[in-house]
Amino acid sequence: MTIRALHSGVEKQDPYCSGRHHARSEFLPAITIARYKYPKSLCLVFIMPDEVRYAEVQGRKVQWDPAQMRKIREHPCFSEGACHNFGRCHIPVAPKCNIQCNYCIRDFDCVNESRPGVTTKVLKPDEAMDMVKKVVDKYSYIKVVGIAGPGDPLANEETFETLRQLHEKYPNVIKCISTNGLLLPDKIDLLQKYDVGNITVTLNAIDPEIGAKIYQFIEYKGKRYEGIEGAKLLLSQQMKGIEEAVKRNMIVKINTVYIPGINEDHIPAIAKKVGEMGVYTFNLIPLIAQYKFANITPPTPEMKRKMQDECSKYVKQMRHCQRCRADAIGKLGHDIQSCVYENK
Fold it and tell me: What is the distance of C-alpha 193 from the center of its chain?
């Protein structure tokens, strides 16, 4: 049996721990005390090789099995170490979106452009499966198949047909989705059914007044909501969805777009809130100035770094994001989708 000791104090990143500050004990190198999922808690973790890991958190056991740990170790967006060794295949099967963000445009594509919402083409589920087969057969380092657009995956039935086939034909690939969270509480059971273990939620505000400045409209159950009413609805659904995902031991990442003059003073509060909810990591994304926010100057790299340092008090930071396209294939920063699509 392996037991390791980690405690609050010295910064040393552990890939499985949602806390930031910890270090090995000099006296008990075999006992683990770390913050797993609950940033303000200390927990004892007993690790048996190839068996289930349990963390005693706030009086109850939280289970971390080897399959769950693999979803961190081999996912390039959830582990900075993984991004050098493993890759992902985004399959663009979800064209429709149910919200309109004031920074988002999905209506054009350039092979040299790397940003969310961009794809060379939208695939049907069967085409997506052909693409997955081609990629995983040829590139053994591709461990993750994700759906990240170009719209919101949960607003498209094609997403769930694709996930169904993935679950049936490729049970061992890591499955992930990226969503605005509006439909996450409604679809969480389906995601669990199809073994989606990694979920990214874009959360730009936890104050509806700020959210109203970011979202032009929200469409939910056939009705359009605008302003604070729409922002309140979206926030309520996002909070419920994140809570349900964490409860199901899904590994949750939060994306927050850093919009100077809109939400910059509010971002640490977002990080604090989601840290308390038990998300695994937090990804701060600088604004790409376009659409209604075309005249806003994006944050500088130094501004981004300082904000990440501030947010790291509350939740583990992802600092290696490449702002992937909806059809990205390959390792982060080393995309190969143009070659794959050309040879399709």
Answer: 19
Mapped onto helix, strand or coil, the DSSP state of residue 187 is helix
Q: Pairing state of beta strands 281-286 and 215-220? A: unpaired
Question: How many Å apart are CA 296 and CA 298, to the nearest integer?
Answer: 6
37: left (phi over 0), alpha (psi -120 to 50) or beta: left
Cα 213 to Cα 1, 121, 224, distances in angstroms: 53, 31, 16
Residue showing tokens 């930071």: 317
Question: Where would I find the H helices in the chain?
Answer: 66-73, 125-138, 157-169, 184-193, 208-214, 227-247, 267-277, 301-311, 337-342
Q: What's the CATH class of domain 68-342?
A: alpha beta
Write out pLDDT tens, residues 219-241.
Answer: 999 999 999 999 999 999 999 99
Residue 148 main-chain phi, psi, to 5 deg: -135, 25
- Rounded Cα distance between 169 and 125, Å, is 13
285 Cβ contact list (under 8 Å, min separation 6): 255, 256, 257, 258, 321, 323
Domain with CATH 3.20.20.70 in the chain: 68-342
Across the range 34-54, mean pLDDT stands at: 42
Res 319: pLDDT: 79
Residues β-bridged to residue 88 = 144, 330
β-bridge mates for residue 61, sequence order: 56
Mean pLDDT of the region 267-283: 94
